[in-house]
Amino acid sequence: MSIILDKVNYIYGSETAYELHALKDINLVIEDGQFIGIIGHTGSGKSTLIQHFNGLIKPTSGSIYYNGEDISDSDFNKKKLRSKVGLVFQYPEHQLFEVNVFEDVCFGPRNLGLSEKEAQLRAYEALKMVGFEEDLFYQSPFELSGGQKRRVAIAGVLAMKPDILILDEPTAGLDPKGRDEILEQIKTLHETTNMTVILVSHSMEDVAKYVDRLIVMNQGEVKYDDTPKEVFGHYLELEEMGLAAPQVTYIMNRLREKNIPVNVNVTTIEEAKEEILRVFKNR
Amino acid sequence: MIRDITIGQYYPKDSVIHKLDPRTKLVGTLAYIISLFLFNNFLGYIVVTLFLVGVIKASQVPFRFIIKGLKAIIMLLMITVLFNLFLTKGTPLVEFWIFTITKEGLRISLFMAIRLIYLIIGSSMMTLTTTPNQLTDGLESLLGPLKKIKVPVHEIAMMMSIALRFIPILLEETDKIMKAQIARGADFESGNLVKKAKSLVPLLVPLFISAFRRANDLAMAMEARCYSGGEGRTKMKPLLYQVNDYRAYAIFVLYFAAIIAMEIVL
Which residues are listed as membrane-spanning (chain B) (predicted)? Predict the structure, then answer.
């Protein structure tokens, strides 16, 4: 179960005055069970890239394979692909439309042709998975708070039981508490179901804490594809791309400059704390 | 998918025609359209063709872009040509079954087709070289005198520019919601008419909500900046005629005179 991208190119508005080469020769392998972060500046091609994963966009050139099958083959079942590769768009709460939360989450499983009973069961499970309170199930989705709406929207995709879950900026526009809650829930999901999770973000802090592989996009190209620790080692190059390493990377590098022998390869505040304490204890 | 549709079809370039005042272009286009129906001789077509080719060359817009606009009127064009071809009375050229093609019919349908094509090309030269906002500005200024008889010209122009501004936003939004629902297994293409109409609900409900939300936000933002209509309002970029505009007007007058003169002399 994997997605392979082979020399994928995508050009918006081909042969018009607004031509834009959004993706340039992308080669990627998405393995099972990974927690992947995709990071890049606005307009670096992240959103375009993830829409290729479930066949919403057809590449201008190059091929995409899902489990060894070329998804642009005419006999390839795209509907099945979309149920297996769940994509949660940016501001997913804008897609809600049903009379109540529960019905909205049922929309996905019903489209898969499941029985009413099965669809409802999945909707219930999905809403539970994102930690949505049961007494709000029959509320209108438009009366909920921003964070709650987003949970409902994520549940709407989870109810299709995807093997791969892609989230485009799932925390955009949420307050810090809402952000942490959503990210923690995604992490728990990943751990309990062993689902492949791809998290698109421009916040280094968010991804550093959760992902075990980080893909950095810049101007339509994959710049780095490595563990977060390795990627943040290039923090000066990241800055040139308009990105920044997590704040702890800067702190550790500063300490190193002051001849305090800390290991700069830490990515989270917790690790940084441990590292600094270790160095001070050894003195 | 939807992103590929261009509305207003503005083609960004830095040509002489692009830099003309929108009022010049509006008046010029109107004059050009009128001129198309003023003549009825062969020489007239040559003058119009030369004029049009001159404008296209000066505008630096690629020719295939201009042709694109013609796709929309192909049906209209065919119907006009066929009707004129078969239903005009005169000296018969070809006869078969119940159809007769006359010499006059051939002539009229050919010239009619050319006129229609020139009409579309000419007016798309205006929209290709002027941004929608410039156009509404120009329109507001040209319709200015109507304010005297209590026509809310500024408000109408403002509504037009807001509507135009919202078209690409709503298209993008439609595209986004459509993709989001497709990702949830929605199917917008297959099924009969009833099923297709029903499948639009997941698209239309969020779209309406977002349109209202945006309209509300915009109204609030305008209110917060004390917008109160056209009364006493000044412009950051007032429309001012440049030397080139006077030249353009002179060319238009010459062109117009040439067309009329030919019609009288010939």
Answer: 29-53, 65-87, 108-131, 151-171, 246-265
Please give the order of strands across the beta sheet that includes A196-201: A85-88, A164-168, A196-201, A35-40, A213-218, A221-226
Answer yes or no: do B183 and A17 touch at CB < 8 A. no
Does A47 contact B at CB distance below 8 Å?
A: no
Which residues on chain B are in Cβ contact (under 8 Å) with A95?
177, 180-181, 184, 202, 206
Q: Indicate the domain borders of chain B.
A: 1-130+237-266, 152-233
Cβ distance of B201 and A83 shorter than 8 Å: no
Rg of chain B taking only CA atoms, in angstroms: 24
d(Cα A217, Cα A235) in Å, to the nearest integer? 14
Beta A35-40 vs A196-201: how paired, if at all? parallel
Q: How far apart are CA B2 and CA A95, in angstroms?
A: 17
Buried b (16+ CB within 10 A) or exposed e, A239-254: eebebbbbebbebbbe
Q: Which of A89, A96, A97 sits opposite B176 (nearest CB)?
A: A89
C-alpha B40/C-alpha B89 separation (Å) is 18
* A25-38 tens-digit pLDDT: 999 999 888 999 99
Cβ-defined contact of B11 to A17 (cutoff 8 Å): yes
From start to end of chain A, where are the E strands?
3-12, 20-30, 35-40, 61-66, 69-70, 85-88, 164-168, 196-201, 213-218, 221-226
Please answer whether residues B139 and B26 qualify as being in contact, where contact means their C-beta atoms are separated by less than 8 angstroms.
Answer: yes
With CB atoms and an 8 Å threshold, state whether A111 touches B4: no
The tens digit of pLDDT for each residue in B158-204 reads 888 888 888 888 888 898 999 999 988 888 877 788 888 888 889 99
Per the DSSP assignment, residues forming a β-bridge with A20 are A12
Element containing residue A252 per DSSP (H, E): helix A247-257
Please give the backbone phi and psi of residue B32, each rounded to the nearest 5 degrees, phi first: -60, -45
**Contact between A17 and B12 using a beta-carbon 8 Å cutoff:** yes
A235-to-A218, A245, B50 alpha-carbon distances in Å: 14, 5, 61
Contact B176, A71 (CB under 8 A): no
Give chain A's residues under pLDDT 70: 1, 15-17
Distance separating alpha carbons of residues B255 and B63, to the nearest angstrom: 23
Domains and CATH numbers, chain A: 2-227 (3.40.50.300)
For residue B114, which of B6, B39, B11 has the smallest C-alpha distance? B39
